[in-house]
TrEMBL record, chain A:
SMART domains: AAA (SM00382). Belongs to the ABC transporter superfamily. PROSITE patterns: ABC_TRANSPORTER_1, ABC_TRANSPORTER_2. One of its GO terms (molecular function) is ATP binding. It is found in: Cell inner membrane. InterPro entries: AAA+_ATPase, ABC_transp_ATP-bind, ABC_transporter-like_ATP-bd, ABC_transporter-like_CS, Oligopep_ABC_C, P-loop_NTPase. It comes from Teichococcus vastitatis. Residues 4-258 form the ABC transporter domain. It holds the Pfam family oligo_HPY. This is ATP-binding cassette domain-containing protein.
Amino acid sequence: MNLLEVQDLQKHYPIHAGLLRREVGRVRAVDGVSFQIARGETLALVGESGCGKTTVSRCILRALTPTSGAIRFTPENGRAVDLATLPKRQMRPLRRHIQMIFQDPYASLNPRMMVGDIITEPLKVNGVPAAERRERLMELLELVQMPPGSRTRFPHAFSGGQRQRIGIARALALHPQLIVADEPVSALDVSVQAQIINLLLDLQDRLGLSMLFVAHDLSVVRHVSDRVAVMYVGRIVEVAPTDALYRAPRHPYTEALLAAVPAPDPNRQHRRRVAQGEVADPARPPPGCAFHPRCPYTVDRCRTERPELAATESGGWVSCHRARELELAGVR
Amino acid sequence: MLQTPMADHAAPAVALAVRDLAVQFRSEQGVVRALDGVSFDLHAGRTLGIVGESGCGKSVTARSILRLIDHPGIITGGRMVLDPSTPREIDLASLDPESRQMREVRGGRIGLIFQEPMTALSVHYTVGNQLIEAVRQHHSVSVAEARNRATELLRDVGIPRPETRIDAYPFELSGGLRQRVGIAMALAGDPDIVIADEPTTALDVTTQAQILSLLRGLQEAKNISLMLITHDMGVIAEMADEVTVMYLGRVVEVAPVRQLFAAPRHPYTRALLRAVPSILARPRQRLSTIGGAVPHPGSRPFGCSFHPRCAERVGAVCMERIPDPVPPGQAGASCFRTEVPA
């Protein structure tokens, strides 16, 4: 049984206009997204701004209530529950199983609380006795490689990277089964980013973490994820094991994303094809395949008929009418 | 010090020479030396990449050149010479930031592209009004002529249907189009030097690729000397001819781009290049790291600023003395290690 199974998730926002504020349209921020996360697996959700990746993660945390679809979560030794339809009150006991790592380590820690209290707050809320909390705190500090003395200091005494470690320790306090990390390293300097990436890799190994890793940086994603789901205008256009996706992308949008990343090597500067145009407006997505106005391989069918995700021979899924015939360029 | 001539072929003229630039921010908490003797040459028609992590002083350098440093920052030393060794040479450090001459340099000689284009744009006026004003600031032309020029600028920066987009307000445009307008604003006074401060950091990756390719195209078409400030080694590799690596307000290495990536000389450059995540990584590949974090510029370590994080310290000298800066016009590293030929 997978830890998480998201099925046909939709999150729409009505657009109101006129005197009577009638609904005149809908922003389909997430428009039919399905994926699974197995235990111990890290799935990356990548895409450009407005693609819906953050909305998906907020639906899983139930910070947002989905419009429709199912989010089936099966905790270890527990029964499967559908997070999409669960009343907020029944969501509370499940929250300890799903924890979040935030992007901004400066905004996500209470400046008036000592680090030890920040990290153990989730334990306190869940009624863990003080002696046990202290013990767990020392374990957690060791886990994220922070000195024990940190516990009596305030967040301002720490650098961005150290604050991110504190945020990670807090997220791990309750032995969560799923971590949702939204751009956890994108606000950090390169030298510090590398430390946090390594820490996440260590934690995956040591704790068998299952993680939804929401990110826009395809280089970071290649280091930390087992599989990658690429989103475009509210839908997943391709999912594949990480190495397969980078070496041999099957969707033209994945190819365009990979080609757009500047490689840190002046000898590799291929005169690359730059995807033209702009990301489509999710309030008015193009008919057919949403990527067709920017796609160099568009044929008539792409303009009218929306492609569905179909299995590929390399263990992935792709939604492109021409996936079978195209030979797309990856990076290697 | 290991040195080699900078240019890989006949060196073009120097458009802007910065020498020993020092900038301090003074407050009740003390003095922060944001720049501490920064020197480099920007060659005509070339791209100089300035790379470093937060607090290294790369943005302060840009703002100093344009004399836009906010209170309480002051330039305490050094020169920034436009057109050095020509009859037209001016030291920007000697000008009054409010002077007419400095206002002409800003926009007319040196254009500035910001990370967030709304820094340069007002929400209250249309794109056209703002561009027309910028054009008329540097050219005495009629409003109608300036409007034509503004439309042309929008076309130059790849904005589709410029005749209609000229009447749009900035908020009606996407982030990518707004950055194109920001570039058009920077070019409105026909500058020969453009400083781009993290111009693509706020953009999505496909938009970033478009903007980088636009900048390269404009540079070639208009023979612009481009100073590109970024934290992204990928952007440096793709865009720069020469690179200046900064750390805590000092230049630690200067090199032609291929040399920098093939044989970095400063331990910081070496460590930084190894720490960059790669799109070519093996699954679950770990990165080399640099210990610790960049210190606050107000608490700069004694001696070589990088020594507490340096894995290649040669001895007490690194803690006691500041290594000599890289001599202007040459490639090299400011490091005691490189003084001993390998």
